[in-house]
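TA notes. Do not distribute before section.
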Amino acid sequence: MKKRLIFLLTAMMMFLAACGNEEASSGDESKEKDTTTETITYESESGPVEVPADPKRVVVLSLYVGDLLEMGVNVVGMDSWSYDNPEFAKAYPDAEIVESTDYEKIIELEPDLIIGSNNVEDAKKLEEIAPTVLFTYGKLDYLDTRMEIGKVLNKEKEMQAWMDEFKERSASLGKEIKAKIGEDATVTVAGYADKQIFLFGDSWGRGTEILYKEMGLKMPEAVADVALEPGYFGISEEVLGDYVGEYLVLNVAETEKDTSFLESNAYKNISAVKNGNVFYANGASFYFADAYSLNYQLDFFEKHFLGK
């Protein structure tokens, strides 16, 4: 009887120990599942890339910070050109400034995704740090690029919703602006930096995509002849008047040191200037054509063309 009792107690202890081990093992597996990052496959220009389904720490090395901002995705590092945009610096105050060759600094940021342009010096080094997606500037239409960013972030539906609203608002504002300034009124978009003027076509940021593509406003022929195909064209200060239409959107960075040309007679005698039809944009905030910046530019045009 005593032997039987000892046997039963031993068997029970072994059973309880096995259950405990199974629960611990199950718990470990559960923890492992929790810490495993779910991924999706994005078909990039260079082939399929496994990217996080819900990226939390993204390093952006080119023109796409505003897309992540509009989609509510965290950016831990961005290039200096992007950080110069006060809107981005304000939205991501803790983000570090990094360039595409700052490999050690990027490693320290522990990114789960890197997004940039394909002109980086060494894409393989970036790929060793985190999943990396690189785009060729101008390869896709500017709105198609927004959709590709949405796919990378696993936010295609959200980006589509943004795009639908953007196109609807652009068309509506375009009709109002044409009704006010006239169907045939011409608009020039230019930038002023280091005593040089740049004219812009319809695909080089600065609101050109909105004005010419979405709203259908007219570009002066003189500008189209030199800037439409290459995207931009540099001219001297003295000949700006030859290219300015009835309205001028002039990008001047707030940090620009020498703006004496804007006080010269050559500038003040331009018809658009004399008629008060010049809209000054902060070049650092107006440069990009990402989702956030496009909304920012729409607000700017609504305010300056329509006074809203």
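Switch to the second chain here.
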Amino acid sequence: MENYFKKYLDNYKRVLDSISPADVNNLFGQISQTIQSGNQILVFGNGGSAMSMSHFATDMVKGAGDALEKRVKVISLNDNAGLITAIGNDYTFTDVFYKQLKTLANPGDLVLTLSVSGSSPNLVKAFEWARTNNIKTIAMVGGRKGKLSEIADTTLVIDSLHYGYVEDTHMLICHMIAFGFMENPVVLD
């Protein structure tokens, strides 16, 4: 197994080397601008990406908010299991994020999602609604890119089809952004 683990790490290093710091800085800038304007950031995903978005929201509200001494409004739409199951049961699972955005989002807000495939119908529907309602959209996707890469205002593609590498890299970028605020709180001065 040691050879497998070495190969896994070597492949992951290649994925990491494909990330452009300028692309991450662009995401950071859009998030920073949203915070400065007093708007909110609505985040969501499916499966492991849902947990990563919940983790990111926690890091931003607690960690970045404390460091910045400013209200940082990042809301994970994955965290209300009752609402998600009610929408999924009464309508369709494709509506679980779209219906929440209709209620919570305002022009000037930012929507962020993570998706390995970039094609999940519930993410695509939410992004289509956001775009028609003047809500900025950012998608971080895997190498397949999918429909999200075509409709998002900003797309960051992780150059891999391996969902483990893509999910790990998504979380790394989320940490880079959150710790960018935590370790450099003057960025909003």
